[in-house]
Amino acid sequence: MKKISSLDGEEAVTILRALAKKDSQFAKAIRTELKHQFSEVSVEAVADAVFSSLNSVPIEDCWEQAGENRWGGYRDVNDVALDIASDIINLYSKEISRYGRLGGIKLERLYLQGVLLGLYQYQSEANSDFSICIEELPGNAAESLVKKWQNLHKEEHEEIENLRIFLMVSCPEWGELLPES
User: Fold this and answer.
1) What is the pLDDT of residue 138?
2) Which residues pair with 67 in a beta bridge?
């Protein structure tokens, strides 16, 4: 018999679902634990994670993937860097949605704020060869994330206003991403 610690994510989810169907008390305990796990978000911790994720990419990874390929094409170092950074940002974008599903709009907004702050800090503070290759990406990604979130929550005026104030105070160069309505 497998130990719990050796289960992969899919196996664990399958087992949790089966147990929740069999036992309403177990299902209630799972819901309680979910609420606990998704009850708060540290904007600063998320920002640090975003910054670190981008700042830890060595330019050598881009150099290795750039150049001619076996199909006769060519990949520029900047294109490779943009692909790597976009993949990182997409992971955080998925987390924003996940926090919305599991914790509600407020936690989703707070997680988004953390991602935006991390991108803003990266744009302002990073000075690696990798950051030079993707210098426009943080601003473009922030704009895309804000517009996507705003479109999903058009009727949530208070949350939109909270995000707008956050941008004005914490990311002043991006304050225009969410103008007053």
Assistant:
1) 97
2) 75
User: Quick one: which H or E segment has residue 75?
Assistant: strand 74-75
pLDDT, tens digit, 9 for 90 and up, residues 154-173: 999 999 999 999 999 999 99
Q: Half-sphere exposure (CA, 13 Å, Cβ side) for 148?
A: 15
Of 55, 153, 172, whose CA–CA distance to 104 is shortest?
153
pTM over 0.70: yes
Burial class (CB in 10 A: 0-12, 13-18, 19+), 133: buried
Longest dimension (CA), the chain: 60
Dump pLDDT digits (tens) for 14-47. Answer: 777 887 788 777 767 766 666 656 557 899 999 9
